[in-house]
């Protein structure tokens, strides 16, 4: 069975909180509460990264398929994200995503911009 949901978040101070709530509610609704905490961490970090490094509103999408949850955040900025191994706050968000997720990556969007994604099982 496949579930999918998406939200475009405003560029406001409460965007990360809204991303966490949206992610938690989806995990509960889809009966995968064991993924909720890690999914919320990933969604929050990816949304905050978009807000910090781009001028666009983040589009958060959650997809559950065969017990694998994919979290994606898309923005209109074509610059690829970079993982900084020796990062210090506030620069260790992607390191946290890499450590929390099963796998993660970044892909360019044909219309412009990029999508950063991470998966959980």
TrEMBL record:
Record's keyword annotation contains Cytoplasm: no
An example Gene Ontology molecular-function term: protein serine/threonine kinase activity
Protein name: Anti-sigma regulatory factor (Ser/Thr protein kinase)
Membrane-crossing residue ranges in chain numbering: none
Domain of life per record: Bacteria
InterPro entries per UniProt: Anti-sigma-factor_SerPK, HATPase_C_sf, HATPase_dom
Histidine kinase/HSP90-like ATPase domain span: 10-119
Pfam family, one: HATPase_c_2
The entry's keywords: Kinase, Serine/threonine-protein kinase, Transferase
Entry keyword Transcription regulation: no
């Amino acid at each position: 069975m496949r579930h999918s949901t998406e939200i475009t978040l405003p560029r406001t101070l409460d965007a990360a909180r809204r991303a966490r709530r949206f992610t938690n509610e989806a995990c509960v609704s889809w009966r995968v509460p064991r993924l909720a905490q890690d999914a919320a961490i990933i969604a929050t970090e990816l949304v905050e990264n978009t807000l910090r490094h781009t001028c666009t509103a983040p589009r958060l999408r959650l997809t559950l398929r065969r017990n694998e949850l994919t979290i994606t955040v898309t923005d209109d900025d074509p610059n690829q994200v970079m993982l900084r191994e020796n990062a210090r706050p506030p620069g260790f968000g992607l390191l946290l995503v890499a450590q929390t997720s099963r796998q993660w990556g970044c892909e360019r969007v044909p219309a412009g911009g990029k999508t950063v994604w991470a998966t959980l099982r």
